[in-house]
Write a structure and sequence with these properties.
Elements: H1 2-56, H2 58-67, E1 69-70, E2 87-88, E3 90-93, E4 125-138, E5 153-167, E6 184-198
Antiparallel strand pairs: 1-2, 3-4, 4-5, 5-6
Length: about 200
């Protein structure tokens, strides 16, 4: 009976360890999946910003850029470095795509009652904010065009920083921090030269 008891104890311990290890691995796989999805959200925000500027045109993008300013010593996002001077920012939110020209909704589904963008049985709501900085226009000569410098076409160069987020619709936050406790975040950056646009 002693041998049987020892075998039972060892079997129970092995089963308990196996269940614990499986639980940890499943949780790790879930965290890795959410991290990968948040990376895709950030990259999708960068692509959406490119499409946004392409749709509204360079002139409207420069107008929006010149009207949006971030005060000195204000961070663009929580836990980001602050800026030392007032800076123009071409800020594009996911909600900017609601009701736009030929747009029926945001690039990502945010209503959990429908099929969620991040997959079924997932209660995380995706969102992104894209900041375009160092926006400037340039004109350059092209083959077959007037060589006198009177080029009517304009190109826009923008540095995009897309901040993707995936967070539960309701969660608790720490004091002084607006981020959700169970929030996943990722950044994607791109330098784009877009055009030609008419001057």
């Amino acid at each position: 009976m002693l041998v049987v008891l020892m075998v039972l104890i060892m079997t129970t311990a092995t089963a308990t360890f196996a269940v614990h290890a499986t639980t940890v691995e499943m949780r790790s796989a879930g965290y890795a999946r959410v991290a990968m999805q948040t990376n895709y959200v950030a990259e999708g925000g960068a692509y959406a910003a490119l499409g946004y500027v392409d749709a509204i045109g360079a002139r409207a993008a420069f107008t929006q850029y010149s009207r949006t300013r971030v005060r000195a010593n204000t961070s663009l996002a929580p836990a980001h470095a602050t800026l030392n001077r007032e800076t123009n920012v071409l800020r594009i939110q996911m909600t900017d795509f609601d009701g736009g020209f030929d747009v029926v909704g945001p690039p990502l589904e945010r209503n959990l009652a429908r099929t969620p963008s991040l997959g079924p049985r997932n209660n995380l709501v995706p969102s992104f904010t894209v900041d375009g900085t160092d926006v400037y226009r340039t004109q350059r000569l092209q083959a077959g065009r007037d060589q006198s410098g009177r080029n009517p076409m304009m190109y826009a160069r923008i540095n995009f920083t897309s901040r993707g987020r995936a967070a539960p619709p309701s969660d608790f936050t720490s004091a002084g921090d607006v981020r959700s406790y169970h929030e996943s975040s990722a950044n994607a950056r791109a330098m784009a030269e877009m055009g030609p646009f008419p001057e």
